[in-house]
Amino acid sequence: MKKTKKVAVFALCVALAFTLSFLETLIPINIGIPGVKIGLANLVVVAALYLLDKREAFAISMIRILISGLVFTGAFSLLYSFTGGILSFIVMLLAMKSEKLSILGVSILGASVHNIGQIIIAAIVMQTPRIIYYFPVLLISGVIAGIIVGIISKTVVQRLMKIDKS
After folding, report:
1. How far is CA 24 from CA 20, 57, 145, in A?
2. How is 22-83 classified by DSSP, letter by letter?
3. Residue 85 has pLDDT above 90, yes or no
4. Which of 17, 70, 86, 109 has the fewest CB atoms found within 10 Å of its own CB?
């Protein structure tokens, strides 16, 4: 891919991930459980893992977390988001490289590990291990979110690969 096209695709991915983060703030998911969300921006990250350079995919994830955190949630939540984002990216990358999981499995694993990272940092920040009791709820929500993101990501990756080949 030419450098100009690469920069344009990267910028589009960051913009799309940020836009999906914004759209998610408009979706009222009020099931009485704080912190539960679909993670629509992760569609872009999962697709980027399969379609772009891994460093670019990581940068898209980190830039999106930074911009979204500063615009929507505040600096304090960045600690949680970066921890979850870094851990989930590493695990998704390793799972993808092992070739034992489909894109759906990689997405589910990533969403679940993201929540694990956030629970760990919450336990450290709040200085209480009791936050771990919240883990089953976040694990279930992570699996559900991972399924949704994984199904959509699989479709997006398949269609973009067809376009790229033509």
Report:
1. 6, 20, 12
2. HHHHHS---SS-TT----TTHHHHHHHHHHS-HHHHHHHHHHHHHHHIIIII-HHHHHHHHH
3. yes
4. 70
Amino acid, res. 134: Y
How many folded domains does the chain comprise? 1
Domain that holds residue 119: 3-165
Give every CB contact of residue 16 below 8 A, 6+ residues apart in sequence.
Answer: 44
CATH number at residue 40: 1.10.1760.20
Of the listed ranges 8-12, 23-27, 39-43, 155-159, the least confidently predicted one is 23-27
Name the amino acid, one letter, at 41: A
